[in-house]
Specification:
heterodimer, A: eight-stranded mixed β-sheet, 27 helices, globular, B: about 180 residues, seven-stranded parallel β-sheet, 7 strands, binds iron/sulfur cluster
């Protein structure tokens, strides 16, 4: 497999041809690498269906419709309740799996569009031959997902174009499956969901390795620098530029211009969400405000003079919000223009003048460098004139406001976390701000309680909550390790064996957005608990920030207390959303580097290896976006389970194993070709926990794998039993399914566990340590 | 009757309102294989008063209890040994299987009571999952707020009215 020869020219003039925007593609140039190609280079939608079906046999979908109806086409609405089918013939299971596919297509397309947009810009700037460099000598295996899925070994930015060509084709096919009158079988939809997730991981890898290479982000560096994090770290005495979104080039435009003009110390640049993380990977001066749930509260604080947005997870009313505090909005991406005039082609000074004089509330500038220059110039000019007057009320005002509450509960009924607003307002009215201030952490900042017509007397609960928390906000000063990027090959060599044997009890990835059911600190507490227990903790995006916004008993952030190395007890921030690819990549690298399984275009075998041997679990405690669903889906196809918080039930489908069903927990022993019962490991593929306690007990359980040695299993059981006892008050009632031999039982618990096992009539497993696989073709010695 | 959370719309099939709590007691008595799922929201009000009612109802109605999350511990503190501990999705997905029951005899449950399943949206989704995929089953939400995806539900109630209703059900079963 190689790459296309592609010739591009803006203008081509030959004696016989004159063309503008000329592009010529001449098929693929053979570009081999030493590894032999596996069976599925660039798999199409159906190529890995058999593997998907194997997983879906273990993990059955449980569908959770929001309502009884489908309203996707004009045949409808159709009532699908109680076994009815729609006019097109689809039933509720088909419809719900279709919705999950739609969500994953949205997520994967968003990352794919992001990757394409960034790659185009990088190629324009640096050329197609610009070499990829993810971690120098430390990362020989630079693109594990791309190699695994496509069979391409990318060496340059240009090679990544071929990868995206493939992904875009797949995504178009996948989306078309959602059309009325296409797929009808829910399990085939689910297989397509997995395909979308796999593609998502490929495109995330493209985006991140391209930006790591071209922008000089930390390259697989466990000691990537610490960044200042929190609303309290922003110096509002300077002009402040706030960047929001996921596609970092315009924010880099700001940083570059500041450096060029020698203004780095004169202007404060801070960010929210993944652009903030990526900017901090580029510039040590950049600061991070917080996760996406901090958007409304920080914009309304009025601190930012200029708000610059790129794409994804930006409030779609950002222009109105910016106008409320007299901040200027700059949009930088055609996906998100916010109704603003496109001023890309105008001279900088003219745009600046129009914005400073208030002739326009904002402008779309689709050239990242120009956008950066305009943002700086506008911020410098308006900051002195602009009263940094936010919308957050003084204590006196908010007490007065609170007294107007009639306790009608309308705001509570709009609040996703059902926060006890009227009770807190009643206390605030009496001068006790504490209950209101306490709502700050579990408030996800959605602003639903303030929407038109919610409060009959016009109270703004979210704003009052932020006001009541004003003093603590000033103290929100934390440190976060910036995104390190990939995992080094040598780290994989060091941990591969202990992970596969179970002696490192698991890799726990805290990822996803900030739609938490309670305080964001729950994520930090989980990370701390498992880091202490010597699991490897990985993180990205808003969850990486949530982990940072917490102080441990020494008053330090977890990034200061725990090392950033991919090893037992490390807390590894890989970076932004697209850096999730490095977490999946690490699992793949264990199969390739440690176990020496063939990687190239060999998806099924590698996924089978990971599913049976690599004790990894994803925890997306506050997942809200469609991207989060496609990211999860990419983990599912690799056989890695994902736990979400209660809001994750709104994805409308779980993938659950039935632990008591012995038949589905059989693997094939590749050494003999015989079936072996291994117990429910891992028990689920997509699981919604009701509480953080439930998640914390599920994590060690979902890290158990068929390949655990007795020592490894006993370590894993130790954590499972210990947490179960501490949080649920007793021994797990399913221990007999996870103890394979007496040697699996943790020594200090032997008596108690043996007594329990006896009660259950437990017997040692017949073949407790098979060489596990779900794929018959991987049997090395055929039966007989 | 409107659902408690404003943005929720259930569709054409909606719960019958429980206007007389005695009816719930009768349904429990008549059920051949009832089951009670108790979740963590039952702890959140008035030091777990709703949970105390769950215990009384389960004991008097002889209904086996499945405790979600950390609720087994709380039930035991109140003198009730739950029949099983499972996550909400684990128990509800099993209930969609017409051959599954806690007793393991291939006969499905016919009535499921729910109390404390929450947050509200999670109960909403579990209720709808059962409505669509467990047609052999009838469900009663004993939560404070209207849950249209169940077969029966209280309307949105004040805490006092809610407790009055739960008291009545417990009393009827204790008779
Ligand atoms: S897609 Fe099918 S079920 Fe949905 S509205 Fe159209 S006909 Fe009805
Ligand atoms: S902004 Fe906060 S308080 Fe208001 S509805 Fe959203 S989560 Fe609830
Ligand atoms: S909607 Fe307004 S009046 Fe009603 S409880 Fe909320 S704040 Fe009070």
């Amino acid at each position: 497999m190689g790459s296309k020869l592609r010739i591009r020219a803006d203008e081509l003039q030959l004696p016989w041809l004159k063309a503008k925007g000329f592009e010529l593609s001449l098929g693929r140039v053979a570009r081999e690498w030493e590894e032999e190609e596996g069976p599925t280079p660039m798999p199409d939608i159906a190529s890995l269906r058999e593997w998907d079906k194997r997983l879906l046999k273990r993990y059955k979908p449980f569908y959770l419709p929001f309502c009884d109806l489908c309203c996707l086409c004009t045949f409808g609405k159709c009532d699908l309740s109680k076994g009815k089918r729609g006019a097109c013939g689809i039933d509720m299971g088909g419809q719900l799996s279709r919705i999950v596919l739609l969500s994953c297509c949205i997520g994967a397309s968003t990352h794919c569009g992001h990757a394409r947009h960034m790659l185009d810009e990088l190629i324009e700037k640096y050329g197609r031959d610009y070499p990829l460099d993810v971690g120098g000598e430390n990362v020989y295996l630079e693109a594990p997902i791309i190699r695994l899925v496509t069979g391409i070994k990318p060496r340059t930015l240009g090679d990544l174009e071929d990868v995206l060509d493939y992904c875009e084709t797949e995504l178009v096919h996948l989306l078309s499956c959602v059309h009325t009158g296409q797929e009808g079988d829910n399990l085939d939809f689910e297989s397509k969901v997995f395909h979308a997730g796999m593609i998502d991981h490929v495109v995330m890898e493209v985006a991140d390795i391209a930006q790591v290479s071209a922008f000089g982000f930390p390259k697989a560096d466990p000691e990537a620098h610490l960044v200042e994090l929190g609303m309290g770290v922003i110096d509002s005495s300077k002009p402040v530029i706030l960047v929001i979104g996921h596609n970092v080039p315009p924010a880099i435009g700001v940083a570059d211009y500041l450096a060029k003009a020698g203004l780095e110390d004169k202007v404060e640049v801070c960010g929210i969400c993944c652009t903030a993380i990526d900017l901090s990977r580029y510039s040590r001066k950049a600061k991070i405000v917080g996760p996406i749930s901090f958007q409304l509260r920080f914009v309304r604080s009025g601190v930012a003079d200029v708000i610059m947005v790129d794409e994804q997870c930006i409030r779609t009313d950002i222009l109105q919000e910016a106008q409320k505090v007299n901040a200027v909005l700059i949009t930088t991406h055609y996906k998100n223009l916010q109704g603003l005039p496109d001023r890309t082609k105008d001279p900088v000074d003219q745009i600046v003048e129009d914005l400073v004089e208030g002739k326009l509330p904002g402008a779309a500038i689709l050239d990242p460098e120009k956008a950066g220059e305009v943002a700086v110039k506008v911020a410098m000019q308006i900051a002195p004139k602009r009263r940094k007057m936010g919308l957050i009320p003084t204590e006196e005002r908010l007490m007065e406001e609170s007294r107007r509450c009639t306790s009608c509960f309308s705001c509570v009924r709009s609040c996703p976390n059902t926060l006890p607003i009227p009770e807190a307002l009643a206390e605030a009215g009496r001068g006790n701000l504490k209950p209101l201030s306490d709502l700050y952490e579990p408030c996800v900042g959605c602003g639903k309680c303030e929407q038109e017509g919610v409060c009959p007397v016009g109270i703004k609960p979210h704003t009052l909550i932020v006001g009541a928390h004003r003093r603590e906000i000033a103290e929100e000063k934390f440190k976060m390790r910036t995104g390190r990027g990939a995992i080094q090959d040598i780290e994989i060599r060091r941990v591969g064996q202990p992970i596969v044997m179970g002696e490192i009890p698991g890799v726990v990835a805290f990822v996803g957005c900030s739609n938490f059911p309670g305080s964001w600190k729950e994520v930090a507490r989980m990370a701390e608990e498992f880091a202490r227990r010597k699991y490897i903790i990985c993180t990205t995006g808003c969850s990486a920030m949530a982990i940072g916004m917490y102080r441990d008993e020494n008053g330090q952030s977890l990034y200061e207390t725990y090392p950033g190395v991919f090893d037992a007890g490390g807390i590894v921030n890989c970076g932004s959303c697209v850096s999730n690819s490095h977490i999946a990549g690490a699992a793949i690298k264990i199969a390739s580097i440690f176990a020496k399984r063939r990687l190239r275009a060999n998806y099924e075998e590698i996924a089978d290896y990971i599913h049976n041997r690599v004790g990894a679990v994803g925890v997306a405690w506050g997942a809200y976006s469609q991207k989060a669903s496609s990211i999860a889906s990419g983990f599912w196809r690799l056989g890695i389970p994902v736990i979400v918080g209660p809001h994750g039930s709104k994805y409308r489908r779980a993938l659950l194993g039935r632990k008591e069903d012995r038949e589905v927990w059989k693997v094939i022993d590749a050494r003999t070709g015989k079936e072996a019962y291994v117990g429910p490991v891992p028990e689920h593929l997509f699981f919604m926990a009701e509480t953080v306690e439930e998640a914390m007990v599920a994590i060690p359980k979902l890290c158990m794998r068929a390949s655990d040695t007795t020592k490894g299993r006993s370590i894993k059981l130790n954590h499972y039993i210990d947490l179960h006892r501490r949080l649920f008050g007793d021994l797990p009632d399913d221990l007999h399914l996870f103890v394979r031999t007496v040697a699996d039982i943790p020594v200090t618990m032997k008596e108690e566990v043996m007594a329990f096992l006896k009660e259950k009539g437990w017997k040692e497993f017949e073949n407790p340590n098979p060489d596990p696989t779900l794929v018959p073709r991987l049997i090395r010695v055929k039966e007989g | 009757m409107e659902p408690w959370q404003k943005a929720e719309i259930p569709g054409p099939v909606k719960a019958v309102l429980i206007t007389r709590p005695e009816v719930v007691a009768v349904l429990i008595k008549r059920a051949k294989r009832p089951l009670f799922v108790v979740g963590t929201e039952a702890l959140k009000e008035e030091g777990g008063k709703p949970l105390d009612y769950a215990v009384r109802i389960a004991k008097a109605g002889k209904v086996p209890v499945v405790a979600t999350a950390q609720m087994a511990m709380e039930l035991k503190k109140r003198g009730l040994q739950p029949a099983a501990r499972m996550a909400m999705v684990e128990i509800c997905s099993r209930l969609t299987d017409p051959k599954w029951s806690l007793h393991g005899d291939g006969q499905p449950h016919d009535l499921v009571l729910m109390l404390g399943l929450g947050p509200y949206y999670m109960e909403w989704l579990m209720g709808s999952g059962l409505k669509s995929f467990a047609p052999h089953l009838r469900t009663i939400s004993l939560n404070r707020f209207y849950q249209p995806h169940c077969s029966w539900s209280f309307p949105n109630l004040s805490a006092e009215e809610w407790y009055k209703n739960l008291e009545k059900i417990a009393e009827e079963l204790e008779k």
